[in-house]
Write a structure and sequence with these properties.
By secondary structure, the protein is an alpha/beta fold. The chain contains 6 helices and 7 strands, in the order αβββαβαβαααββ. Helix 3 crosses helix 4.
Length: 258
């Protein structure tokens, strides 16, 4: 069943992104490269873990092998794992990164800060905030690169974020939890401020973290009312029998890996 969902999500993403990045030679809508190049364990920032220590934040970067394009759309993938497990090398994140890079996209699969205890709502929300901060730091990393050495050849007008389950939750909250009135509806504002705010300080501070699209694979958003008419578009797929992250609405079960 998971493979069916992944395949369906892959096709849905292809349709959405190719519409936003049209190309006459089939690039972005079909496989046009025979292989990809991967750069592992790039440090994109650091921040304080839930235990108070410092966590170095890493990502893997994928690009089409032999590509000469200098303005490439970027997909930033965020893994699942209940905010207590998982990694940038999870099979679904690797599969998406490899397949999309062969279609002409640049991809990044990120690690982010994990861990919260005990399993209560306040600590779970803090875990989401930390993950959002790290995802923003990863996006800022590519804006900074574009404005400095331009190693990765990214079109920063076409940065898309997405993930699976907990990773999708992270991407959704980065995209749609975006102003003060929404913050107070979610968690005490002083608590979020003490954590560094929604933008956070996970790396490349001072640069933009703007994105153009969200890919939701079996994730959830705390308030559907946060999605407004002028927000970035959303590509979403979810199994109706999901009893961890509910298909319609309900409380996420934190005891089961997301």
């Amino acid at each position: 069943m998971k493979q069916i969902l992944l395949s369906t999500l892959f096709l849905s993403i292809c349709n959405l992104l190719s519409a936003q990045t049209p190309c006459d030679d089939g690039r972005y809508s079909s496989t046009v490269f025979s292989d990809f190049t991967k750069i592992s364990n790039i440090t994109y920032g650091s921040n304080t873990s839930w235990t108070g220590g410092s966590t170095t934040l890493k990502m893997d970067f994928y690009e089409p092998e032999g590509d000469t394009e200098t303005e490439r759309p970027l997909l930033v993938w965020v893994h699942g794992g209940s905010f207590i497990g998982g990694s940038k090398t999870d099979p679904d994140m690797v599969e998406f990164s490899e397949r999309f890079s062969k279609m002409g996209y640049a991809c990044a699969s990120i690690d982010y800060r994990l861990g919260f205890f005990p399993f209560d709502s306040a600590n779970a929300v803090k875990a989401v905030v930390r993950a959002v901060q790290d995802l923003r730091g990863a996006v800022r990393y590519f804006y900074k690169d574009k404005q400095t050495v331009n190693q990765y050849k990214i079109d920063t007008n076409k940065i898309f974020i997405g993930g699976s389950s907990a990773g999708a939750i992270t991407a959704l909250h980065m995209a749609y939890l975006d102003d003060a009135c929404k913050i107070s509806d979610y968690l005490n504002e002083s608590t979020i401020s003490s954590m560094g705010g929604l933008e956070g300080t996970s790396g490349s501070t001072g640069y933009s973290s703007d994105i153009q699209c969200v890919v939701n694979g079996c994730g959830a958003l705390a308030r559907y009312s946060w999605i407004e008419i002028d927000d970035v578009p959303l590509c979403s797929i979810h199994g109706t029998a999901d009893d961890v992250v509910k298909y319609n609405r309900g409380v996420v079960d934190p005891g089961t890996p997301l």
